[in-house]
Design brief:
This protein has a 7-stranded mixed sheet with strand order 3-2-1-4-5-7-6, with helices on one face. The chain has a single domain, classed as Vaccinia Virus protein VP39 (Rossmann fold, 3-Layer(aba) Sandwich), CATH 3.40.50.150. Helix 4 (106-112) runs parallel beside helix 5 (134-143). The radius of gyration is 15 Å and the shape is globular. The chain starts with 25 loop residues before the first helix and ends with a strand. The protein is 27% helix and 24% strand. The longest helix is centred in the N-terminal third of the chain and has 13 residues, at 26-38. The chain has helices spanning 26-38, 60-67, 80-92, 106-112, 134-143, and strands at 50-54, 72-76, 99-102, 120-125, 147-158, 171-177, 180-185. By secondary structure, the chain is an alpha/beta fold.
Length: 186
């Protein structure tokens, strides 16, 4: 796994050596960023954007955003062994100053917080495929207005996932890459 483009292009990332983490494949990541950059359906600009990377794992998505010029990236990860890898990857590009790590369970955090003051241009939601409470997370994000009006939420699921994404979210585009289904929404 590596950073695909930007100032850290080609930088290899450490991936967790466990059965809980499913790293975002480079081909899928590249396709997501190509769509963000070139689609006339998506108006968000990665440069200077605030990015929220939920269920961060190794941080591949957020680090790609940093490499492409994002202003700030907030990572959420609560698995101790994976946190170590995430921190090593952030340290390897020396961008701790624009990176924040929340060591909390995403679902409980957003359900319990009255307000979350940060607003984001890009939210990447990549929970484990077995996670069934995806709509709970999305609805908390929408209710708390964490996504900016002109922002984009990108949701990564398995292509055979039977969960219907809440109709409170406007699906702009839907793509399938291998076993991955990617929703682009706002």
């Amino acid at each position: 796994m590596r950073i695909i483009s930007g100032i850290y292009k080609g930088k290899k990332l450490i991936i967790p050596d466990d059965k809980f983490t499913r790293p975002l494949k480079d081909l899928v990541k590249e396709s997501i960023f190509n769509l963000i950059t070139h689609s006339n359906k998506i108006t968000v600009n990665i440069e200077k954007s605030n990015v929220l990377d939920l269920f961060s794992g190794s941080g591949s998505f957020g680090l790609e955003c940093i490499s492409r010029g994002s202003g700030k990236v907030v990572f959420f990860e609560n698995q101790r062994s994976i946190l170590k890898v995430l921190k090593q990857n952030i340290n390897s590009i020396d961008k701790e100053n624009i990176s924040t790590i929340y060591e909390f369970d995403v679902i409980n955090f957003f359900a319990s917080q009255e307000k979350f003051y940060n607003k984001f241009n890009i939210i990447f939601l990549d929970p484990p495929y077995k996670e069934k409470r995806i709509n709970e997370i999305i609805e908390n994000i929408l209710r708390k207005k964490i996504l900016r009006k002109d922002g984009i939420m990108i949701i990564h699921r398995h292509k055979n996932d039977k969960i219907n994404i809440t109709n409170k979210l406007n699906i702009i585009d839907l793509r399938t890459y291998g076993i991955s289904r990617i929703y682009f929404a706002n």
